[in-house]
Each structure stands twice: as C-alpha cells, then as structure tokens.
C-alpha cells in the first residue's frame, strides 16, 4: 500500500498560511517520512476569490486544488479532510467551530482561542463529533524539541530546577504598526505579545516541566505576571513567573519565567550573539536554545562534568527558507531549507492515519491549561479584549 494522501483545506490565505502550505508541498521523504503525503485540496478567502486563486499560484498547488471566496464553501468541500485555520486569534473560535460543525478535522494556528472558555467549547465539540483537533504550536514537533526532551528524560541535566524562556522580536511598533491595525497590536484581533509570542515561551516551559511528567504527578503552576501595555491597549511585553509544584523525587518545586515582547528582541544581532533564549537549568547542567524560540536552529549543552555539545538543526528541504517573514525581526532561513512547519503537519497526518484525535506532544487538556495561564496573566494586568473577541456565543456577532 502506498502512502496515505492527506487532503488539506486552507482557511485564510494570509502570511503564515503561505509558509505552511509551501512546507506541506515539500516531499516528506526528505525528512524520512514515508507513510503519508500532503496535498492541498482547496483554499478559501473570507470574501475574495481572486486572493484564493493567487494563493494557489504562489504556493505551487496542484492543478486539482480549488479556490473559494467563502469559508463556508471550503468546509462544504467533501475532498477536504482536514482544515488548517490561519486567521487572526480573534476569529479562531468562530472559524474552528465552523469547521467542526461541518464535520472537518482541524489544525488551528496558535493560540487556538483567545481564552480558555472558548477552547473548552471547541474541545467538547471535537470530542463529541470524534474529530481531530490540535493547536498549531508547531515548535513542539521540531527535531530540536525532541532532542531537548531526550536530554531531560535521560537525566543528563539531573532534576530540573528552573527554566527561562524569551520569545521577543525587536521592532518599533510606532513605525512598523503605526496605524494600530496590525494583528500584533490590535485589540479587535486579540493582539499583543503574550498571545502571539508568549505562548511559545509558555509552551517550552510546559514541555520541560509538565508534559513529560506522569499524569498523576502533573500539577498546574501558580503564576504571577506583569504586562506592559502599548497605547492601543494590547501588551507590548509580558513577563509570567511560574511555580510548578513538584515532588522531592522530581527535585522539588521548579520555577520558570516566560518573557515575550515586541520592542526589545531576544536576538538583537539576528545571529545569537546575545546568548540563549531558552535556558533549562538542572542540578548537573544546562541545555540552551537560541532565538527565535518558535523556530530554534541551534542548541548548546553544558554539563558540570565538562561536557559541552553545540549542535545546529537545519530544516530539510528543498523549501523556501523562512517564507513570508524572511528577514523580519532578525529571522533568516537558508534558501533551499524548509521552514519546519511540515513536522506538525506530519503529526496531524499520522493522527489521521492512526485514528488519533489529538497531538501527542500537547494534548487538548494541556492546550486549555496554557490558555488558563494566559487568562490569569491578562486578568492580573487588567487586559480584556472586546466582548466580541472574548465571546463564547456562536455564531459570533458582527464587530
Ligand atoms: N506558526 C507561526 O510561526 C506563525 C503563526 N501565526 C499565526 O497565524 C495566524 C494568522 O497570522 P498571519 O498569517 O500573520 O495573519 P495575516 O493577517 O497575514 O492573515 C490572516 C488571514 O486571515 C483572514 N482573515 C479573516 N478574517 C480576518 C479579519 N477580520 N482580519 C484580518 N484577517 C482576516 C484573511 O484572509 P481572508 O479574509 O482573505 O480570508 C487574512 O489573510 C495567527 O493566529 C498568528 O498567531 C502567524 C505568524 C507565524
Ligand atoms: O507565531 C509567530 O511566530 C513568528 C512571529 O513573527 C509571529 O508574529 C508569530 O505569530
């Protein structure tokens, strides 16, 4: 039997959808995956058919791929097996529900929703309908992330004591987002550094201190947070302090700091010159990753016995390097490299092949828990999005 073809529908033909779809079309054999292949069945713009058509041309989609000028048409297409939702945060709840109600499996860009209540509704709906649902925290599926997990599981670092994670980009919001409408600073689109970038810092912290633990020993963290607000009301930087209660056998409580920001970057020279963006401190050593934490390509291990291991993690290709944001915020990727989003697509494909309904490296309950942490952080700082954006009603009303 040949590889299973996974037929994707792309909902929202924006920047990241283009990068993701180009990655989908990189041959899985270049990364050793032989049991599945990805294909683009259709793409939809909310209202602009020409945009959808242009998207298919840009990504080099197969001639059979259809372009639609409404999301309803996409979710009604029987050729579409799984929908990748790539709209702004503010619209994920509504768009994922649209897909689930139409009986489609869903991979939704991060954060899956604006708040935990919305996420719980999506999870309930997916489970009731026996559909696959996953938040696109693609970083968890990179080989470098598997390496970090292996280092920790092998106990080379000893019990983990603390974690520091920074996902920040250096830009001048006054210049780059001058009119305040960009999704990074726009309250109507659930903008802000915490939901957009802080989610990666939190994801790393959870991956290290929570996900790998036995379910009976996992405990939700206590948190204390500080947000600095931009003039639009969204957060331009966020600092979340976390205490993970852990048993003596696990090394006792572990502390973490999740930073995010859009003004002072984690990687000012774009070459890692400022040092690591992730530091995982154990009793016997430390593992470090270099920015950007959503797509790290260098690790550094230092152990108290004198071991030092520096590794590079290029993405297989051929592909398009860093796609739409090549050069933005110091992110560069070599031409001829994939972006790395195909690893999460493979996880989704593998789930569809094996009839799994969640991702293996971040289950839906954990996705909800991380949203609860971000809810608390926002509450402590008084950051509330407009009613329409926080709404748990469906259909969501007009803006
Ligand atoms: N994984 C990663 O590395 C990255 C993830 N992201 C995530 O992807 C999502 C989209 O980000 P990005 O691609 O940068 O966004 P873009 O603004 O480039 O694209 C969003 C798309 O959503 C559609 N859309 C539907 N409703 C709206 C609306 N009210 N306002 C604006 N657009 C709307 C638009 O297409 P149309 O209306 O034609 O359908 C638009 O093209 C976000 O959740 C973000 O966090 C973003 C960048 C990197
Ligand atoms: O997920 C993301 O990663 C890259 C960032 O530049 C972008 O704003 C964010 O959405």
From TrEMBL:
**One Pfam family hit:** GFO_IDH_MocA
* Amino-acid biosynthesis as UniProt keyword: no
Q: Which residues form the Gfo/Idh/MocA-like oxidoreductase N-terminal domain?
A: 6-136
| E.C. number(s) listed in UniProt | 1.1.1.179
Origin superkingdom = Eukaryota
Keywords from the UniProt entry:
Oxidoreductase
Q: Does the keyword Oxidoreductase apply?
A: yes
UniProt cross-references to InterPro entries, sorted A to Z:
Gfo/Idh/MocA-like_OxRdtase_N (IPR000683), Gfo/Idh/MocA_domain (IPR050984), GFO_IDH_MocA-like_dom (IPR055170), NAD(P)-bd_dom_sf (IPR036291)
* Residues of the GFO/IDH/MocA-like oxidoreductase domain: 147-287
The protein's GO terms of the molecular function aspect are: D-xylose 1-dehydrogenase (NADP+) activity; nucleotide binding
Could you tell me what reaction this enzyme catalyses?
A: D-xylose + NADP(+) = D-xylono-1,5-lactone + NADPH + H(+)
Please state which protein family the record places this protein in.
Belongs to the Gfo/Idh/MocA family.
- For this entry, the protein name equals D-xylose 1-dehydrogenase (NADP(+), D-xylono-1,5-lactone-forming)
Lineage of producing organism: Eukaryota, Fungi, Dikarya, Ascomycota, Pezizomycotina
């Amino acid at each position: 039997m040949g590889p299973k073809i996974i037929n994707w529908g792309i909902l929202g033909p924006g920047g990241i959808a283009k990068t993701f779809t180009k990655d989908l079309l990189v041959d899985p054999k270049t990364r050793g995956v032989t049991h599945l292949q990805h294909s683009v069945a259709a793409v939809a713009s909310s209202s602009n058919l020409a945009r959808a058509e242009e998207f298919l041309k840009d990504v080099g989609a197969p001639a059979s791929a259809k372009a639609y000028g409404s999301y309803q048409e996409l979710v009604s297409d029987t050729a579409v097996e799984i929908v990748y939702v790539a709209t702004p945060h503010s619209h994920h709840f509504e768009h994922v529900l649209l897909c689930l109600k139409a009986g489609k499996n869903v991979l939704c860009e991060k954060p899956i929703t604006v708040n935990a209540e919305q996420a719980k509704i999506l999870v309930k709906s997916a489970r009731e309908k026996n559909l696959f649902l996953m938040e696109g925290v693609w970083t968890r599926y990179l080989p470098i992330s598997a390496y970090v997990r292996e280092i920790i599981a092998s106990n080379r670092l000893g019990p983990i004591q603390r974690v520091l994670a920074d996902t920040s980009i250096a830009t001048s919001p006054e210049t780059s987002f001058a009119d305040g409408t960009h999704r990074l600073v726009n309250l109507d689109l659930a903008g802000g550094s915490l939901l957009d970038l802080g989610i990666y810092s939190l994801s790393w912290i959870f991956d290290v201190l929570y996900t790998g633990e036995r379910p009976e020993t996992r405990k939700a963290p206590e948190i204390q947070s500080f947000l600095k607000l931009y003039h639009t009301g969204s957060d331009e930087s966020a600092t979340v302090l976390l205490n993970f209660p852990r048993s003596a056998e696990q090394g006792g409580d572990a502390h973490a700091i999740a930073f995010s920001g859009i003004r002072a970057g984690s990687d000012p020279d774009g070459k890692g010159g400022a040092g690591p963006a992730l530091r995982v401190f154990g009793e016997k050593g430390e593992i470090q990753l270099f920015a950007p934490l959503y797509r790290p390509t260098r690790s550094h291990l230092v152990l108290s016995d004198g071991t030092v291991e520096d590794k590079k993690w290029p993405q297989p290709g051929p592909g398009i390097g860093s796609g739409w944001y090549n050069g933005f915020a110091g992110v560069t990727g070599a031409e001829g490299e994939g972006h790395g989003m195909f690893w999460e697509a493979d996880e989704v494909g593998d789930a569809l092949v094996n009839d799994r309904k969640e991702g293996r490296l971040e289950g839906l309950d954990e996705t909800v828990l991380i949203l609860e942490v971000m809810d608390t952080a926002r509450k402590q700082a008084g950051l509330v999005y407009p009613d329409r954006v926080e709404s748990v009603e469906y259909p969501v009303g007009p803006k």
